[in-house]
Design a protein that fits this description.
The protein is an alpha/beta fold and about 280 residues long. It has a single domain, classed as Metallo-dependent phosphatases (Purple Acid Phosphatase, chain A, domain 2). It has eight helices and twelve strands. It has a six-stranded mixed sheet with strand order 1-12-2-3-4-5, covered by helices on one side. Strands 6-7-8-9-11-10 form a six-stranded mixed sheet. Strand 2, helix 3 and strand 3 form a beta-alpha-beta unit. It is globular, with a radius of gyration of 18 Å. It starts with 9 loop residues before the first helix and ends with a strand.
Length: about 280
């Protein structure tokens, strides 16, 4: 799949967002532009995985996705994320792509903002479409690993915990990279549970049928970024994020969680769709 960036008209997105804010009224527009994008929410959810080891019942994964770091705007929000992670003390932190927004200059700032994050069994990151559009592969790897994270793109790693094995992999961006599931699953041992970091959620339909997959963690959609209150409807859809927009999904013995993300694209606005840090507690049967 080509890594060439398609032409996306951010002005058109911004106009659409502006019209939407006008439609919901000035007070709501102020909330969406000035308050909600900085209002970090924490989602705590328990997921029962059929093949998850009993010895690891209660294993906690924190998902940070779609930061789209904007230097000068997002420092306080990232500080909230860091504080929440320090208080939650997850076993693993998964950073599922879109570190930058529209150029590579914010990548070092993103790395500095997240440097020093820690979890009992590490911090693992995989790339998103914006990262692949705007950053060179070797630069991504250098900056992410320089911040103390493990960078996985079409690669996997085995964790050995309490006498059990977990296989964690990261797939390159479906939209903008060169995804290679064969390479991503290389090294997986039979009957070992798999946690896959896949930025775009929609490939779940194919991946869960073709590869061992217990839980896929994705972002990409921002949960819609601006949703219709009460109805939870997300008017905006994005390529490779149309089938699974937000939340928890299950097919056969495989599960998918799609996070709302931290940052924004287009205008820095969110409505009825606050930035999210997800804390997922994995349970055995």
């Amino acid at each position: 799949m080509s890594s060439q960036r398609p032409k996306i008209n951010l002005k058109r997105i911004s106009r659409r967002a502006t019209l939407g804010l006008l439609g919901i009224g000035v007070p709501s527009g102020i909330w969406a532009a000035a308050i909600e994008p900085n209002h970090l929410s924490i989602t705590r959810k328990e997921l029962t995985l059929p093949h998850w080891p009993k010895a690891l019942d209660g294993f906690r994964v924190a998902q940070v996705t779609d930061v789209h770091f904007r230097p000068g705007d997002d420092e306080k929000l990232i500080a909230k994320v860091r504080l929440a992670l320090a208080l939650e003390k997850p076993d693993l932190i998964a950073v599922t792509g879109d570190f930058v927004i529209d150029d590579s200059s914010s990548l070092p700032e993103f790395a500095r903002a997240l440097k020093g994050l820690s979890a009992t069994h590490g911090v693992i990151a995989s790339p998103g479409n914006h990262d692949r559009w705007h950053c060179r592969s070797h630069t991504l790897k250098k900056e992410i690993e320089g911040a103390g994270m493990t960078f996985l793109s079409n690669a996997g790693t085995n964790l050995h915990i309490k006498g059990e094995n977990i296989f964690i992999n990261g797939l390159d961006s479906i939209w903008a990279g060169h995804p290679d599931p064969t390479r991503a699953w290389k090294g997986h041992q039979k009957n070992t549970p798999v946690l896959a970091l896949v930025h775009e959620p929609d490939p779940f339909d194919e991946l869960h049928q073709s590869h061992p997959l217990d839980l896929q963690l994705s972002g990409h959609t921002h949960g819609g970024q601006c949703r219709v209150p009460l109805l939870g409807y997300a008017p905006a859809k994005v390529k490779f994020g149309r089938k699974f927009i937000y939340g928890h999904f299950q097919k056969a013995n495989s599960q998918l969680f799609v996070g709302r993300g931290i940052g924004t694209v287009g205008l820095r606005v969110r409505f009825a769709c606050a930035p999210e840090l997800a804390i997922l507690t994995l349970r055995s049967v």
